[in-house]
Design brief:
The protein is mainly α. The chain contains seven helices and two strands, in the order αββαααααα. The two termini are 43 Å apart.
Length: 235
Amino acid sequence: MNKSVKYFGVTWLVSLILFHLVTFLLPAEIAGVKRFSEPVFWVAYAFILVALLVQLGVFYAFCRRTESEKIFLGIPLVRVACGITPASVILGVVFLVVPVIPAWIGALICAVLTAGFVIAGVKAVTAADAVSAVGERVQAKTAFMKQAVLAAQSIVTRAKGDAKPLAVKVYEALKYSDSVSSPALAAVENEIERHLSAFEDAVLSEDAIRTGDEAQELLVLINQRSAQCKALKNS
C-alpha cells in the first residue's frame, strides 16, 4: 500500500507541474483572445487547482485509516485517484488554453470528477469498515476455542509418561472441534474451561488417576459441545 500511496503522490505532483507548465507557457493570446485578461480564466484556474488539492487531501485522509483488510480494499481507490487526477489536469488544460471553449465548463467537470472520487473513497472506507467489523465478530466468537487449544497444547508439552497420550487426545479433540462459539454454548464451555484447568493440575502433579478422570470428562464435554454446535447450525 505504501508503494501505491507514493505512486499516487508522484502522479499528482507531475500532473500539477504539467498543468501549470502547459497553462502558462503557451502563448497568452490564442485566436485573438488574451486568456489571462479574462476573469473567467482565473476563476476556472482557481477551481481546478482547488479540485486537485481536494483530491490530494481526500486520498491521504482515506489511506491513513487503512490497515489489514482495509489495505486490500483501498487498492481500487488508488487506481481511481491515479486516473481522476490526470484526467482533471488534461481537461483543465484544454479548457484553459482553448479560449473558444468556456473555461468554467472545465472547472465544473473537474469539480464533478472530484465529487466522484470522494464518493468512491467513502464507498471504499464503508466496505473496509464492514469487513473489519465482521472480522472482529469472528475473532470474538472463536476466542474461547483458540485459548482452549493453546492451553491444551501447553499441557501436551509438559505432560510425562502415561499422561502424554491423554493430553494429546484432549488437544486433538479441541483442535478439530468447531471453533465458533455462541451464547448457547456458554454452559458447556465453562465446564470445559474448568475441567481443562483441573486436567492441567492433575498432569503437573503427576496424579495418574485424576489425570485419567479429567481427560475422560473433557472428551465427553468436547463431544457434547460438538453435538450442540451441530444442532445449532441445523436449527
